[in-house]
């Protein structure tokens, strides 16, 4: 693959890491322990910031409309409680209650996706719009070259006439 030379002052376009394609071998997407560990880390970080499991459980209950207790959070994080799994539908409430996106990012990464927030999301949208604009301009140039001048003149005249009649 050829590498293009970078012009002076040209922005580097490696703002984002492209997520790896999820593995498809048996068991490769078993995330039970990773979710437990991520939840444990999220709760520990929240505790260090003054928000204990009681507070988080109450917030999740209020935000999700699902009952959640401190004991349930304890079971979801215990390796010995393999039968107890943190419910996916409580994930948005957990993120909002703690401000911690790591568990959401873990799930997205396992699906081959990446979560973008704040400035990253704005940069990605700007990049997508610039690419769309560039593609549209290239397509328009291609069409203009393919259409004879006489046809283009007639089309422009028709549009101008319609605009004049629409006033």
Structure description:
By secondary structure, the chain is mainly α. Helices cover 60% and strands 0% of the residues. It has helices at 32-48, 53-64, 70-77, 91-98, 102-110, 118-146, 149-165. Helix 1 runs antiparallel to helix 5 (102-110) and helix 2 (53-64) crosses helix 3.
Question: Could you write a compact summary of the structure shown?
Answer:
The chain is mainly α. The chain has helices at about 30-50, 55-65, 70-75, 90-100, 100-110, 120-145, 150-165.
SSE layout and pairings?
Elements: H1 32-48, H2 53-64, H3 70-77, H4 91-98, H5 102-110, H6 118-146, H7 149-165
How far apart lie the N and C ends? 54 Å
Specify the oligomeric state.
Answer: single chain
Rg computed from alpha carbons, rounded to a whole number of angstroms: 26 Å
Secondary-structure-based class equals: mainly alpha
Query: Which band does the percent of strand residues land in?
Result: under 5%
- Per the principal axes of the C-alpha atoms, what is the gross shape? elongated
Count the helices. How many? 7
Query: Tally of extended strands?
Result: 0
Mean pLDDT: 87
- Summarize the amount of helix as a percent range: 55-70%
Main sheet, how many strands, which sense, barrel? Answer: none
Q: Give helix and strand order, one letter per element, not per position.
A: HHHHHHH
Uncertain runs: 1-13
